[in-house]
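REVIEWER CHECKLIST
Item 1: Sequence provided? yes
Item 2: Single chain? yes
Item 3: Sequence as submitted:
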Amino acid sequence: MPRTDEATADRRPAALPESGAVGSDAPVQKVQPLRPLDWTPPVEPPWLAGDTRYLVSDFCDYLASYLPADQIKACYHAYLFGAEAHEGQKRKSGEPYIYHPLAVARILAEMRMDYQCLIAALLHDVIEDTPVDKAQLAETFSEEVAELVDGVSKLTKLDFKSRAEAQAASLQKMLLAMTRDIRVILIKLADRLHNMRTLDSMSPEACRRISRETLDIFAPIANRLGINWIRIELEDLGFAHYWPWRRQVIQRALQGRGGGTRVEMVGLVETALRHALQQEGIEGRVEGRQKHLYGIYRKMRDKSRGFSELADVFAFRVTVDRVDTCYRVLGLVHNLYKPVPGRFKDYIAIPKANGYQSLHTALIGPQGIQIEIQIRTEDMQRLAESGIAAHWMYKSGVQSSTANPAALAADWLQNLLEMQRDAGNSVEFLEHVKVDLFPGEVYVFTPKGRIHSLKRGATVVDFAYAIHSDVGNTCVAARIDRRMAPLSTPLRNGQTVEIITAPGARPNPGWLNFVVTAKARVNIRGHLKNIKQREAQALGRRLLNAELTPLGAEVETLEPLRLAAYLEETGLESLEDLFGEIGLGNRLAPLIARRLAGIEGEESDAPAAERGDQDVHPHRLAIRGTEGMVVNFAGCCRPIPGDAITAVFSPGRGIVVHRAECRNLGGLEGKRDKRLDVEWSREPEGEFATEIRVEVSNRRGVLAVIAGAIAELGSNIENVQTIEKDGMMTDLEFRILVKSRHHLARIMRRVRLIPPVDRIMRITRS
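Item 4: Structure as written out by the authors:
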């Protein structure tokens, strides 16, 4: 792009024009001589004091408080480059577009980010909205800046089926760029914050859409990275635009809750706390505040409480110098006001997942009003407000903290990479990220004393995957506080969990019904997908070979040219993919076999019914029971070894095995190609579910006697249901696991010998 600016080492812009486009009628090159670099910088940016001017000179003044002169000049050069690139572009509000990148850079300057990050902020929209490309940015500035800008840019050059898919793909791109450089997400958070501050110029529909995305994605990310002040502002702005009426109702309720009296109460508590600190000779700051509106709303929603039921609407913070002083202050406040039982949390000893540390306690304050007090050190306060950004803001002293947010963020980013690897598509990946963005409130220990933070409601399986993916994939049992416990057991604070693994174990699809963490869910799904694909390929090979054999061919002897032509025609990349399609029931093996064997024409086009069943399926497929997820047993008739069986193709699932007399097969009489002749292998393996109904007279303990008899004969009861018939008789319906029809007959004979049993039968629900 041709450049017309005359930026030099001794020139700086005075200000952007107050109105109109940034173009030839209002050139951005309006400059004035640089002030000496030894001027005294302002304590805080002028815009924080209510000054709404968009002055790049003020921005450079503030940068001088922590950046050297050559880096300030580089930022100024980036500003001029961005202003020229966006020349003629305006925001929805009508102001020149360059106002927005400058405001984003100001937000990052408040966080004391490095100059490369500020340059990227000033240029963060040029790839997306102007002809400037990544290569030009790399050449003009640096490869680092180009990577940052590219990471923030949306995917606009690809076609997507829906807005949701496009949004998910862009967020996936940004999050993966964040795993390479955390500053990508800091720029995006600053970008979103300024967009939310200026959202009023957007249409109501866009306001709601952007606010929903902010509340679902960006505010939780800010929280996950520990940047509290950005999280709170994003939440309140999103709340105001997405649920404006709910916000007004809560605001009115707060004002009507004895507003003047409450203000006096806040002052009274602050005075009492300061006096208590002075008496003990403790130096510290005391601040009282009203909890922000979205926090109040979220507590009402999550706990299903009305506003009148909320007590701790006001919170106080005591900031002291050292950790041991925090615990001294805790004793002071508990002596001053009565603590609420069960409401004390020690986040100093056990930090939150984002590195947050503090002591939290709830007290009964003046007038019986419940208040919350947070006690922390100055370092903890800086980390609480800035989180990962403290890595750049306060590089000395903070990194020795036991809750290093940079290290914790790195762990989270590693989890993101694992989710990306195992997720099926960008929408699924985004759903996993949403689950993962709400940090846990349950803290459990390994046998060696290591602490793991999990989402509330997390189970043993979630804990196993939190340790390592391989531990989760092979877990078979667990001990909680040295006692055996099922894998589905929800965990509670303070428990010690030991995972028991087995080398041949693998994830169970049923785990997806109770796991709550994103890492567990994505690993289970990914592992099951791989297993299902392998099983489908094995079954598909068997099915195709069974159809090729009577045609005088085998998979290994197929003509390569004909096979390659067929794969190209169907859009499949390899023979393994073809096996997988057959095994999943998406393609029919008889038709493919005739095509690959070169048997085409009138005979192959004739209806299956005219050729006879034996011509279509001359060989029966032997069912062993170990085929996995691609061979399913129908729940309507529940076939077991010894039953006459047949199977139907189910696209996406593989084949479904029914008993031959199942009435649900009636609709497939004229669709022979949809059916598959199968039989049990000579030595089927595993256990198969079936159902029996036992009619008994009402006697005490009869259920236990029947269950004991079933267990004696080596069967496991999966489910039992009682159906009251009258005052004298009851039906007991059992779903049990058996090895064969002979095994079931032995169980039924044994149960029939029990005196209260009047009748027993096998249930068919078709």
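Item 5: Key structural point noted by reviewer: Confidence is low (pLDDT under 50) at residues 1-51, 155-160, 394-402, 601-618.
Item 6: Recommendation: ____
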